[in-house]
Amino acid sequence: MTLVAALDDLTRQPGVRGALVVSAEDGLVVADALMEDVDGGAVAALTASLLRRMRGVAEVLGQASPQLVHLVGGEGSLLAAPAGAELLVVAIARPEANVGAIRLALKRAAERVS
Amino acid sequence: MRAIEPWVEPPLSAFLAESAARVTLLMTASGQVVAQHGFTRSLDVMAAAALGAGIVASTTELARIMGTASLGNASHQGAAMGIFLSPFDTPRGRWIALVVYGPETSLGLVQLFFGRMVADLAGAAPAAPKAGPVLAENFEAELNASLRSLFGR
Which CATH number goes with the domain that contains B71? Predict the structure, then answer.
């Protein structure tokens, strides 16, 4: 399955505004399926930084690396999951979206692209 | 961080704080240094500025030979650190940024906040001063003043 096909599966979920595959180390976009008003480059850079810091927090706490990060904002959510050692899969969702279904789709996408 | 012109400092400070870049050099297209952060020796700054301007000049010429529009930024990913080199337009003409960053940040973050700095510099630039005649006796005094601004001596 190609990266784009994995993202299409994710963006078919109701309420998803976009999804990206991101290079974990560089914070650069590898593939994306985004609505026009979403700045993919900014999302990729900031999400990779967030995941790196979350990994640091987990290490300090003696925990395993996070399998999924869910950031809830006033106007929606951002969900991100590592896909192997080098990639991240990111989804951006509206507030009314079914976050449970998106989490499952995100994990599936992460398994497919890793 | 040191800058020849004070209006450059706020955008550059914000970029340094947000991108976590280790070294940053802003220069004109001809290699004249406008601002620097992270260098301790003036010789290093002059060498880096000359090399950075040379690389951009070379890639611009390559683009012309290839019949394409000007090439954008260039990045070099090393084992311990990366280098980001990008020309950009300002109200004062074409400038070049040379950024060195470590594993505490990423190329994506450097690019993201670099774009914001370019926009901030465009908004912060005052009207260009009227160019006066270039006199030999002024040249050395201006060069010394620029070096004092950049290195505090």
Answer: 3.30.450.30
**Residue B12 or residue B134, greater confidence:** B12
pLDDT tens digits, A32-84 = 999 888 899 999 999 999 999 888 888 888 888 889 999 998 888 999 999 99
Q: Which CATH class is domain A3-113?
A: alpha beta
**Res. A30: pLDDT tops 90:** yes
Q: Determine contact: B152 vs chain A, CB below 8 A.
A: no
- How many domains is chain B built from? 1
Q: If you ran DSSP here, which 8-state letter would residue B114 be given?
A: H
Look at phi and psi of residue A18 and say left if phi exceeds 0, alpha if psi is from -120 to 50, else beta: left
Which residues does chain B have within 8 Å of residue A25's beta carbon, measured at their own beta carbons? Answer: 106
Domain residue spans of chain A: 3-113
CB of A41 within 8 Å of any CB in chain B?
A: yes
Give mean pLDDT, residues A18-41.
Answer: 93
Q: Which residue of A has its CA nearest to B105?
A: A49
Query: Helix, strand, coil % (nearest 5) of chain A?
Result: 40, 30, 30
pLDDT tens-digit map of B25-66: 999 988 889 999 998 887 788 889 999 898 888 888 878 887
pTM for this prediction: 0.79
- Which residues 6+ apart lie within 8 Å of B7 measured at CB? B124, B125, B126
**Within an 8 Å CB–CB cutoff, is residue B111 touching chain A?**
yes
Contacts 24+ apart (CB under 8 A), B139-144: none
Cα of A79 to nearest chain B Cα, Å: 18
Contacts of A28 in chain B (CB under 8 A): 106-108, 111
Residues spanned by the domain of B55: 2-151
